[in-house]
Design brief:
Layout lengths: L8 H16 L10 H14 L8 H5 L1 H8 L8 H17 L1 H10 L3 H19 L1 H6 L12 H8 L9 H12 L30 H7 L3 H7 L10 H14 L11 H18 L24 H12 L5 H33 L5 H18 L19 H17 L3 H4 L1 H6 L10 H28 L11 H12 L3 H10 L39 H8 L7
Helix pairs in contact: 5-6, 16-21, 16-22, 16-23, 17-23
Organism: Podospora australis
InterPro entries: DnaJ_homolog_subfam-C_membr-28 (IPR018961)
Protein name: DnaJ homologue subfamily C member 28 conserved domain-containing protein
């Protein structure tokens, strides 16, 4: 039983490294092995080289002779050798100076080191100039049957993790100006018609076709010398050319059957009409109205378009609609109040008696007194007053100013118009009727409460500068008296000059109605009712078909 010598871990690693270096073809590292390791190594060599002739003693001590004898020079490296070679190349490529120093320290031969460096330089050259090599078809990685797309991908730049400037600019251009759809990129190229090169017989034409396509060769030959013809004026020469030109024109002009042809025909006719001067005396149309705010750089385009859409569609905010409702209700109430008071005042002043002129003078005197005691200088509706109270402070100040002005002007008024005072009655107080006010107070208070309710709801939604004052019955009556006083005299005149309306709308006996019912008759019609039965067509029909024996 043979005893196996003991091998330590350090020696086993050294033996493994020495065997790998021999497999790759590198010189072994100069390390001192123990006695047991040398015995194991010599036993391994002896077993591996047993069938071969024994070398000499000098050759056993040389490692180069051992590698030459044990390995053939052209044997393909194994998987482990290739893996070690790739690891070495990777260390040289990625390790930089440190990788090269590690290779030098490992004890590589100069020949192997130069071979590795040449391979690295060749790989770097191919990676840097891969596009040029692919385009020139000098690279052996692409087969000859590779398509254009494959060659473009192979010749493209390797992705490094960052987008190049050219690709970024191209992407931004594509995003800013997207390409058109395939249907909008233009007309397709019409392929050329296929020409049949086969020899064919010329189609035979009938005598009618030959006669229709024949030319008057004699006249054409005679017209060839028109330029040198003598005795013809320019006008005669043009007429002759036109005659020859019309001789060969078809009877009917071919009409185009496409949109482009029709447009060209229409443009041709329009240009001919312009050349004849048919568009010179056309009256000018209405100019285009342009909004100056459309091109204003200080107005936001979105805001301008939205405001224009709202204005065109008549869309208003809710408080504007409420404001229109308030103004409409107030206008209706004031119009009715003024109409009723003017008619009542004219009737009451006319009831005092006198001629028409005296009635009008009395109404003018009341108007003068109204102007003194209740003046109306401004439109108070447009004045912004506090909305938390119904007292009109502005009107109180205006009345005080008017009274002070009237008292200062009162001494000079008798001297200025002595003749007017003699013919016009002197009235110191304006015209009022407490009975009419008491009768109409319930309606007026209800209307004022309704207006104040609408005003309150409007002020809740309107901005501060657009709020309206509340309505007061006393203020509305004073405004009504001040507005109607100058118009009472004219109302009396109209009522006196107008026709009297009869109580009976159909007119009495002997009178003619002037209304719409007057067109149906001149006088009142009388209807007589006779209770005696009459014999008509119904009775005749009944007697005609009456059977014998029936009554």
């Amino acid at each position: 039983m043979s005893s196996t010598p003991f091998i330590c871990g350090r020696c086993s690693r050294a033996m493994r490294l020495a065997s790998l270096s021999r497999a790759v073809g590198l010189p072994p590292t100069q390390r001192q092995l123990s006695h047991s390791a040398r015995l194991a190594l010599s036993a391994t060599k002896a077993s591996s080289t047993a069938p071969e002739p024994q070398p000499t003693a000098n050759q056993d001590d040389s490692p180069e002779s051992t590698s030459k004898v044990s390995e053939p020079p052209d044997r393909e490296p194994g998987a482990m050798s290739r893996r070690l070679q790739e690891a070495t190349e990777e260390a040289l490529l990625t390790g930089g100076r440190a990788g090269q120093r590690a290779v030098e320290d490992a004890g590589f031969s100069e020949e192997l080191k130069q071979r590795l460096l040449d391979k690295i330089a060749h790989a770097k050259f191919q990676s840097e100039n891969s596009a040029a090599l692919a385009q020139a078809s000098v690279t052996s990685k692409l087969p000859g049957s590779a398509g254009e797309g494959t060659r473009a991908m192979a010749s493209g730049q390797v992705w490094t993790g960052e987008e190049t400037t050219e690709d970024a600019v191209l992407r931004m251009l594509n995003d800013a100006r997207k390409p058109l759809a395939p249907g909008l990129r233009g007309k397709q190229k019409i392929p050329d018609p296929i020409v049949d090169m086969r020899i064919r017989r010329e189609p035979t034409r009938s005598a009618g076709h030959r006669a229709a396509s024949a030319r008057d060769k004699a006249s054409v030959y005679a017209g060839m010398g028109l330029k040198d013809a003598t005795g013809l004026s320019e006008k005669e020469r043009e007429d002759m050319k036109r005659e020859f030109r019309e001789r060969f024109t078809p009877d009917a002009r071919a009409m185009p059957n496409t949109i482009t042809g029709l447009a060209a025909l229409a443009n041709e006719r329009i240009e001919n009409a312009i050349a004849r001067g048919q568009f010179k005396n056309i009256p000018r149309g209405k100019g285009v109205e342009r909004d100056t705010r459309a091109d204003n750089p200080f107005i936001d385009t979105t805001e301008y378009i939205m405001n224009k859409m709202i204005k065109r569609q008549e869309i208003v905010p809710p408080w504007i609609e409420k404001q229109q409702e308030l103004l409409k209700t107030a206008r209706t109430f004031r119009a009715r109040l003024r109409n009723d008071w003017k008619r009542h005042a004219a009737r009451m002043i006319s009831a005092q008696g006198g001629s028409l002129q005296q009635k009008m003078d009395r109404a003018n005197a009341y108007a003068a007194a109204e102007e003194v005691h209740n003046p109306r200088k401004r439109n108070v509706d447009s004045i912004s007053v506090p909305t938390n109270s119904t007292d009109d402070v502005v009107m109180v100040k205006m009345r005080q100013q008017a009274l002070a002005a009237a008292e200062s002007d009162s001494p000079s008024s008798p001297e200025a118009t002595p003749t007017t005072e003699e013919s016009r009655p002197v009235i110191t107080r304006p015209f009022r009727d407490p009975t009419w006010e008491a009768a109409e107070r319930s309606y007026m208070e209800l209307a004022i409460n309704n207006l104040n309710a609408i005003t309150r709801s409007y002020n809740l939604m309107a901005p501060e500068l657009a709020k309206k004052p509340y309505f007061s019955l006393e203020r509305e009556l004073n405004n009504c008296y001040a507005d109607c006083a100058p118009e009472v005299a004219e109302e009396i005149k109209i009522r006196a000059a107008g026709p009297t309306k009869p109580l009976d709308p159909f007119g009495g006996p002997g009178t003619r109605s002037t209304g719409i019912m007057g067109s149906f008759g001149a006088n009142k019609a009388k209807v007589y009712d006779d209770r005696k039965p009459k014999y008509g067509f119904k009775e005749f029909w009944r007697d005609l078909w009456k059977k014998d024996g029936e009554k």
